[in-house]
Amino acid sequence: MAKKRKAKTKVIRRKKGGKLRLDFISIGMLAGLSMDQKIANIIKRVRDNHIVVLDESLDFIEEAKLVTSTMKEIDTDFKGIEFCTLPRKAGVFMTYATKALESLTGKPTAKPGLTLVGPSTIIREIKRDPNAFYVSAEL
Fold it and tell me: InterPro entries, alphabetically (predicted)?
């Protein structure tokens, strides 16, 4: 009598701890930090495979610093980042008031908007239009 063959099943195993981690960080948490401290905080979280959502937009200087700092951190474990910033459009009065406050205090104020930063090994695609961005991620 012929032996019965077991059906082969393919077992797909996820990486240990394959959870999606999102960190929502308010303006207040980063307000007292210098630009270097803010960038280091973001990169530390992203290196730990967290997707970071900031309640502020990064200006072009901060974005450039984020990219250059990330390039220094790239190794076999950390492949890089993907990010997108949506600035919130302020009216003429708010723009004037913000500039006046900055000139009085001598400190830059937080820029309203939204920024998403995540590891390039998780974020597959970011589609952006003027008022929103759409993220595809994969663990």
Answer: OapB-like (IPR012017)
